[in-house]
Amino acid sequence: MTTLHCKNSGRIDSLDGLRAVSILLVCIGHLAGTVNFPEILLPLHSIGNYGVKVFFVISGFLITLLLIQEKNKTGSINLKQFYIRRTLRLFPAFYFYILCIALAEVFGLITLLPGDLLHAATYTMNYHNERSWWLNHTWSLAVEEQFYLIWPSLICLFGLLRAKKIALVAILIIPVIRCVMWYVFDVSPSAMTRQFEAIADALATGCLLAYLYQAGFKLPKWCDSWLFIFIPISMIALPSALYIIDKGLFYTIGQSYINLTAAIMILRYISVSEGLTFKILNSAPAIWLGGMSYSLYLWQEPFLNSWVTNWYASWPMNIVLTFIFACFSFYVIEKPIMHRKKKHLAKAELKSKRILTS
C-alpha cells in the first residue's frame, strides 16, 4: 500500500500548493467587479466556484486517506478524537470571524439579513437562500462540516469497503439528483451549487480518490505529457461552454466534469515529485499561501466585495486588508490552536500506547 508522504509539520506540500491555487481562484473571482479592479478581468468573476470545487475534492481525499491510514494502523477509527481534531482546527478562526461580523452589524458598519448569523453559526448557510454577502461564503464551510458529520460515521458503521461503494454510488447518483432538482423541481442556481445533496459528489470524488491512491493506483504514463495543458483548461472551458449552451447541462454534467478533472490533477500532483509544476506547488510561497488558505477564505469576503464601493473594498486596498486580517487570524488564532492540537494528539497517542501495552 502507498503511504502519503508528510513532512514533520504534518502538512502535505503538494496539497498545500493546490490549496494555494484554489484560494487564488476564489480571490480572483471575488476581486472581479470590485472598484478599480481591471474591467477586462470581469469575466473571471465565476472562477472562484472552480476553486471551491477543488477544495471539496481535496477535503474528501485528505480526510478519507487519514481515516484509512488510522484504520490500517490501529484497527479502528476514533470518532471522538476525529471530531476533537476538526473542532480545534476549524471552530476558533470560524467563530472569531462570525463574532467580528456580528459586532460590525451591532455598530452599524454592515447590514445582515434575517437568519444570517444563525445559519452561519450552525453550519447550515447552504440552505439559507436569502443571505447577505458578509456571511455568504460560509455555505461552503457548512458543506464541509456536514461531510465531517456523515462520512467518518459511515466508515465506522459500514467499514472501509462498503463505505467505498457508498462513495461510488454517490458519484453516480448525485448527478441524477441534480437533473431532478433542475428539470423537475426548477430549483435555483444557488441550490444547485450549494445544497449538500447537489454537490456531495465533489467530496465523494475525493473520497474515492483516496481509496485509489492508497491502493497504489497511478495515471498512465501516456497521458502525462498533455495532461497539464488540457485538463486545467478544460476544467473551466468545457463547463463554461455547457453553461452557454444550456445552464442545465452546466449544473448537472458540468459539475461532474469539474470534480473529475480536479481529482485527476490532484492524483498527478501528489504522485510525481519532479518537474516545474511540482517545484511551483512545493515552493515556500505556495506552501505558505496554502497554509493560510482557511483564514484567507474567511477574510476575503468582507473586502473582496463587488456589491459596495467603500474604500476598504476597492482595489488594491481590498487585497491588502484581506491579507492583513487573514494573517492575524492565522498567526494569532490558528497557529496557537494547532500547536495545542499537536500536544493533545501526542498525549492521546501516548495514552493509547499505554493502554495497548498494559
Model description:
- Helices cover 74% and strands 0% of the residues.
- It is mainly α.
- Helix 1 (13-31) packs across helix 11.
Structural class: mainly alpha
Helix content: over 70%
Quaternary organisation: single chain
* Gyration radius, rounded: 20 Å
Describe the structure concisely for a colleague:
By secondary structure, the protein is mainly alpha-helical.
Which keywords apply here?
single chain; 13 helices
What's the layout of helices and strands?
Elements: H1 13-31, H2 48-74, H3 79-106, H4 116-121, H5 138-183, H6 189-194, H7 196-214, H8 224-245, H9 247-271, H10 276-281, H11 284-291, H12 293-303, H13 317-357
